[in-house]
Amino acid sequence: GNGPVTSGGFGVDPSSDRAKKVPLNGSTKLDPDVRRKLQGIKGALLMRNQVQTLCEVAMLNQRYGFVAASCIDYVGGKVDPTINYAIVMSQNVDEFLVAGIIETVVPHPRYNPETFENNVAVVMLQSNSAVSFFNPIADWPSDWGQLLYVHRSLKAGILSSWNEPYVMMINQQTEVNANDQECSSASSLYAANKDQFMCNPATLTFFWSRNCNIPYGVVYGIYNTNAAAAAIYSHSVIYGDGFCGTGKIISYYLHLRNYVKWAETVTGVTVGTLHSPNAAGYTRSSNPSYSLNSPAGPNAVGVNIFGNFTTTTVP
Asked: Peptidase S1 domain location, by residue (predicted)?
């Protein structure tokens, strides 16, 4: 069929109402409940030399956003100045597109391209944006009853229109409680930072090749009727050669909450956060030098680890 193939997340039957799937051909519109939760959030996709990537950008406002540091090209440890980056934004569920040229990229100072530690960067757009908005970061996991895994893509052509997004809705507690041992043994980085990642084996069928299965791009935390970006895709561990084989794929999504203070230091603006007003034990990000714990040992034997890949170089 034309719809996505979603391998079940931990403890989730893909046919259940907690794993809602949206086909790309537009014949089935977003579930009203999913649509309601997504409305009001400006979604964004990174463009590299006018070609769409698989990298979601968690926009903070019309000028700043989080993206995986592995989505950026580097030369001599610095961002490659010959690559032109831009983003395409929309209201997630509408056809409206807004393009923004990226002026500056600031990778996390302790980003490790081999282990994918601190796989996050701040992008700064040129200031002449045609829109004005504000997106908070979901920063208190105990608030989240559900998670929305989302993957966006553009239809053929530059700056044309959006495909219907892939969306998987999952109960957070189901995911947290299930198969933690498998996630830890596959990725030593996860094992050393369990509370800083979401781990899920769910994949979607790559829209340019039905033989390839890829991870989602961004995860939204749901608090009551509110939704905000909670994590972005960091890396995958694959028991095999790549995303187009038959080996098991386990993907890891980095929580953004601990990088809020760093982003504020980089941008000079206050980053909004979404959490319940009476969350027990709530603490806001306050360490601009926050860094993940380094892996204590190797990953599982016989696995390959992948971070960013483009639409033309899916490994």
From this structure: 48-200
The structure tokens listed for 31 are 């579930």
- CA 159, 131, 310, 217 torsion-angle sign: negative
Q: Which long-range contacts (CB under 8 A, 24 or more apart) does 128-132 make?
A: 129/62, 129/63, 129/98, 129/100, 130/98, 131/42, 131/62, 131/89, 131/98, 132/61, 132/62
Closest of 172, 141, 149 to residue 275, by C-alpha = 141
Would you say residue 9 lies in a domain?
A: no
Stretch 236-254: mean pLDDT: 84
Mean pLDDT along residues 132-154: 89
* 265, 271 contact by CB (below 8 A): no
Start-to-end CA distance of the chain, whole Å, equals 24
- The rounded mean pLDDT for the chain is 79
Total domains in the chain come to 1
Could you tell me the CATH number of the domain that includes residue 67? 2.40.10.10
Task: Provide the domain limits for residue 155.
Answer: 32-274+283-306
Is residue 70 within 8 A of residue 255, CB to CB? The reply is no
